[in-house]
From TrEMBL:
It comes from Colwellia ponticola. GO terms for molecular function: ATP hydrolysis activity. The keyword Coiled coil applies. Keywords: Coiled coil. Residues 289-316 form a coiled coil. This is AAA family ATPase.
Amino acid sequence: MYESYYGFSERPFQLSPDQRFFFATSHHQRALSYLQYGLDQGEGFIVITGPIGTGKTTIARNLLANIADEKIVAVQLVTTKLTPDELLELIAAEFKITVTGNSKADLLQSIERFLISLNKQGKRALLLVDEAQNLPAETIEELRMLSNFQLNNKPLIQSFLLGQEELKAIISAPDMEQFRQRIIASAHLKPLNSEEVKNYINHRLTQANCNIEALFTDEAFQLIFEKTLGVPRKINIFVDRLLLFGFLEELEHIDCKAINEVANEMSIELTGSLTNNSLSDDNSHQPLVVNSTENVENMKNVLREVEELLEGSIQQKVKMTRYIDKLLKQKNREYAELQSQTTNND
């Protein structure tokens, strides 16, 4: 919607991971280096962890998109809340392995035959497991068992695990010692610092062919960092909303006033919350006492919030209506000018 107004070739802050917009901070570059090192070694596990929204999936897709080695057959798993048997079934499905029989032994034998056939072709399998913090410990152990498939003392499959911080706790458990000994490298992603936030935003604007000089003021970059805490996904959500706001308000530049106004709007919405506040509290399961003064006051607060949400929604619709009206008037003028030129030519 705002792309044509600001002259973008596409939306620069989409949520879907896109390797074309990948921006490598020092931490992201280190993680990529570890992944590449793991590829070169062809064995063991590489583990990448980090908070929600710091770019783990983007790194995985960037790696897959840039694998030039035709000898590597790679698949990525994104549904990971699986039992060991379900994991094996999903691996077989992703590698398009034909399974003969219905038992787990049949499944394992089919996977092993496939891996051996790859090896005979001079190829090897690479498994990227995203959201690995959802894997039960016994399923992670199943991954370790798969790494035991070898031929001529060379592993037939290699796994990269990418997950949130909870994955570190799972792997650190006492009964995971054998798995830890198979990890050849690990990295932990961090949110961006203030300078990286500025570079990140400018990088994505450049990728979208932005030709507006200083679309954001220097103070704006610092404030965006403070509002998003440097988390890339939050930056995408927030800056996308800022550009929509700038389009509706016909702003040529985004300043701190616009940022604070949008942040206030988003603070009472469900759209990509910029805060880490939980929607529930310790009293969420207590019975409701209708005649409680506290509950009556809570109801009033809820009604006020609903009123503010409705008012904000109405304001956005009014802005949108104004813009559509403006577009229609512009199109009518262009049509009238075209008709006038046609008449003059006749």
